[in-house]
Amino acid sequence: MFENIQDLSYAEMSVFNFVKFNLDQVQKMSIRELADQSNVSVATVDRFCKK
After folding, report:
1. Domain total for the chain?
2. Whole-model pTM?
3. CA–CA dist 5, 16 (Å, integer)
4. What are the C-alpha distances in Å from 10 to residues 15, 18, 27, 38?
5. CA 16 to CA 18: how far, in whole Å?
6. CATH code at 21?
7. pLDDT tens digits, residue range 11-41?
8. Which domain range does residue 15 map to?
C-alpha cells in the first residue's frame, strides 16, 4: 500500500492507519471528512496524499 512508511510523520501515520482500516468509507469521504476522522488537519491529509 505504501512503500516508504518510515517517511511518514506521526500525524500522517494517523491518516495512513485510518485509511488502512476504513478503506470502504474513505472512498466516499471528502478530504475534510478524512482529516476530521483521522484527527489531523486538512494540510496533513494533503501532505499524506502527495507522499
Report:
1. 1
2. 0.86
3. 9
4. 9, 13, 23, 11
5. 6
6. 1.10.10
7. 999 999 999 999 999 999 999 999 999 999 9
8. 5-50
